[in-house]
Amino acid sequence: MLQEYQLDGKVALVTGAGRGIGAACAEALAQAGAAVMITDIDLEACQALVTRLREQGCHADCMQQDVVDEATWEEVVSQTIDRLGGFDVLVNNAGILTGALVETDTLEQVRRINSVNIDSIFLGMKYAARAMKPDGPAGRGGSIINMSSVAGLFGTLAHSAYGSTKGAVRSYSKHAAAEFGSLGYAIRVNSVHPGLIETPMGDHLLETWIDLGIVPDEAAARETIHSMTSVGRLGTPREVALAVVFLASDASSYVTGSELVVDGGMSGR
Ligand SMILES: NC(=O)c1ccc[n+]([C@@H]2O[C@H](COP(=O)([O-])OP(=O)(O)OC[C@H]3O[C@@H](n4cnc5c(N)ncnc54)[C@H](O)[C@@H]3O)[C@@H](O)[C@H]2O)c1
């Protein structure tokens, strides 16, 4: 592998890494050489992944974390530095999806998705910046990767609250990139925008379309997605994870404030 793509000596923290895209990111980062702290509300899933990665000879540890809890962020960042010897990469991946029409959505549900999908980005960047900046306890600069979505780039049916949170993730990333750069922190910030990916959340989106009568069944839902892409299929978590490895590595040293779209061509049509 090209040296710039290797993550040997780097320490990464991935949230929502118990399954899906987060688990794939943790695995790919570890396989590229990083020591990885895996967090999720589902501790058992994290522990299972740590076992699997250690069997592959990778360096991984885990903690339970609810990304909306500020006190836990402080603890997770401090434990990451103590246990793994630094903090260079944050993948702010944890998120939830709710599908609803604007006219029938509830304020409670909208506030919940705002909290999990946006507050977590703020909290993650806050504690990562404090740790990664030159006079912070990790002190080596770093790369923050915020998981957005194509739903943050264009409008979709029945996912306006979700899409709005992902638009906020995109914008937050650009502002933080400018701020950290201006302050001389050597911390890059980018957003990643997956299209529809084969995970439990991806399945949930297809089910929402069926429940709302937009498509008759799963086969029709999948066919609709296929026809919306240029590649003609849904994406895999690994395909998103490999983009994240690029942004985590020194291969992307001149990339900050950008949005990396991984959507099989969905937004380019
Ligand atoms: N799957 C897709 O098609 C798709 C597309 C675009 C963007 N995304 C984004 O990618 C990210 C991961 O999606 P996924 O498909 O892997 O989802 P998923 O639902 O399959 O997995 C999400 C993980 O996050 C964890 N989680 C949820 N709430 C949490 C909280 N409060 N604190 C900590 N962990 C929490 C869950 O336990 C789960 O392990 C999300 O931000 C999602 O919005 C997904």
TrEMBL record:
Gene3D superfamilies: NAD(P)-binding Rossmann-like Domain. PROSITE patterns: ADH_SHORT. Keywords: Oxidoreductase. It comes from the Bacteria. GO terms for molecular function: oxidoreductase activity. Pfam families: adh_short_C2. InterPro entries: NAD(P)-bd_dom_sf, Sc_DH/Rdtase_CS, SDR_fam. Signal peptide: none annotated. PANTHER family: DEHYDROGENASES, SHORT CHAIN (PTHR24321), ESTRADIOL 17-BETA-DEHYDROGENASE 8-RELATED (PTHR24321:SF8). Belongs to the short-chain dehydrogenases/reductases (SDR) family. This is Dehydrogenase. It comes from Oceanococcus atlanticus. The lineage of its organism: Bacteria, Pseudomonadati, Pseudomonadota, Gammaproteobacteria, Chromatiales.
